[in-house]
From TrEMBL:
PANTHER family: CYCLOPROPANE-FATTY-ACYL-PHOSPHOLIPID SYNTHASE (PTHR43667). Its EC number is 2.1.1.-. Signal peptide: none annotated. InterPro entries: CFA/CMAS, CMAS, SAM-dependent_MTases_sf. Keywords: Lipid metabolism, Methyltransferase, S-adenosyl-L-methionine, Transferase. One of its GO terms (molecular function) is methyltransferase activity. Transmembrane segments: none annotated. It comes from the Bacteria. It comes from Pseudonocardia lutea. This is Class I SAM-dependent methyltransferase.
Length: 414
């Protein structure tokens, strides 16, 4: 059986994708919108050494597999393989074809793969993991994320809203949930490039942000100076566990919990609880698994190339950990469709700046990002992953929450 025919059997005869292999073989409809090109026998060796998403990703990152047409469309056609891996039966067929190739080539993993050292979720190792993903290039992130420099799920007020409108709506939503008012104090942990910090500061809130990425902290501080917000805003290159101040009116955690680890969730929420005054609020915004997982499970491509040591938990577990840390849970919602739209727009930005991005970070890293954003967009659309916001309050004396009987400042939130 020739190479394209083997792959065609794996992805299924009805898949709307054309396969073209280096041995001249072809499979699939000639008029397919996208084509998967197997450029080298080394791609087969990748699949033999790491079946499923990791092998496919390694081959794509190195250019041993390429895609003609839109990558998201190709992944949609390959959804069963990319999201669920290759079945044992299909892998056996592949192995019969690629086994001799693997013995000949045995390619080493690409150098872009992260290999953090030290104890899992120690400060030293967490710093390495965060640096791998975020200390890439601020210029690169400006092209991908757009003017807001916001690297978390937006909240689209309308289907046709721009990415910038949606990111501003997200920050406004967080501010309303936290009931931020002028003169209050906000702690934003894992603050990124300081988007929430600057949003709060523009309304007279005293906001402190912390991040493990030096590049992010430097960019954020410059943005604060540029906007004349020094009186109200500060971003530090600091582990959230080293923040000395207490008595904050509110804490926002937007996209940090994914990096914490299951065993550390209790201490994480207890730490944030200790930073709040009585009746202070926590808004936790993070990616989750749709179902409870008993073992540490991260897509190997994401773990090696995108978020080293990342870990996704179920919304039920997160809510339990928040509750057990002392928070009263007051509101929760799933924004997964919004994250699919956010990734769509980030992917569009990358394509618009593709040549500049390649020149800035290299073709391998640019391909990592293209693949990661397209695959995650599909994951959110298919409910393979979700995005949840949970609002908790630290009760005061006699159970006083400080919450209104219904909703909060702004009509139509509940």
């Amino acid at each position: 059986m020739r190479v394209a025919e083997v792959f065609g059997h794996v992805i299924g005869a009805d898949a709307p994708i054309r396969l073209v292999a280096y041995d001249g073989s072809k499979s699939g409809p000639d008029d397919a919108e996208v084509a998967l090109r197997i450029e080298s026998p080394r791609a087969l060796a990748r699949l033999a050494s790491a079946p499923g998403t990791l092998g496919l990703a390694r081959a794509y990152v190195t250019g041993e597999i390429d895609v003609e047409g839109d990558l998201y469309t190709a992944l949609s056609a390959l959804a069963d393989v990319t999201l669920n891996g290759v079945s044992k039966g299909d892998f056996a067929r592949l192995l019969a074809t690629v086994g001799p190739v693997w013995l000949k080539y045995r390619p080493a993993p690409p150098e872009l793969e992260a290999r953090p050292r030290g104890r899992l979720h120690s400060k030293f190792r967490d710093s390495q993991a965060i640096s791998h993903h975020y200390d890439v290039s601020n210029r690169f992130y400006e092209w991908v994320l757009g003017p807001s420099m916001t690297y978390t799920c937006a909240a689209y007020p309308r289907p046709d809203a721009t990415l910038e409108e949606a990111q501003e709506a997200k920050y406004d939503l967080v501010a309303r949930k936290l009931a931020l008012e002028p003169g209050m104090r906000l702690l934003d942990v894992g603050c990124g490039w300081g988007g929430m910090v600057r949003h709060a500061a523009r309304t007279g809130v005293h906001a402190l942000g912390v991040t493990l990425s030096r590049n992010q902290a430097e960019w954020a501080q410059e943005a604060i100076r540029r906007e004349g917000l020094e009186e109200f805003a500060e971003v530090r290159h600091l582990d959230y566990r080293d923040v000395p101040e207490t008595g904050f009116d509110a804490v926002s955690s937007i996209g940090l919990t994914e990096h914490i680890g299951k065993k550390q969730l209790g201490s994480y929420f207890r730490f944030l609880y200790g930073k709040l005054r009585p009746q202070g609020r926590l808004l936790n915004h993070c990616i989750t698994q749709p179902h409870t997982v008993n073992k540490r499970k991260v897509d190997p491509f994401i773990g090696r190339y995108v978020f080293p040591d990342g870990q996704l938990e179920s919304p039920g577990l997160l809510m339990t950990e928040m509750n057990d840390a002392g928070f009263e849970i007051r509101h929760e919602e799933n924004l997964r469709e919004h994250y699919a739209l956010t990734l769509r727009d980030w992917g569009g930005n990358l394509e618009q700046h593709w040549d500049e991005a390649v020149a800035e970070v290299g073709i391998g890293r640019a391909r990592v990002w293209r693949l990661y954003m397209a695959a995650c967009r599909l994951g959110f659309e298919l409910d393979n992953i979700q995005l949840h916001q949970m609002l908790g309050v630290k009760l005061g004396e006699h159970g006083a929450s400080g919450m209104p009987l219904r909703g909060w400042r702004a009509e139509g939130v509940w």
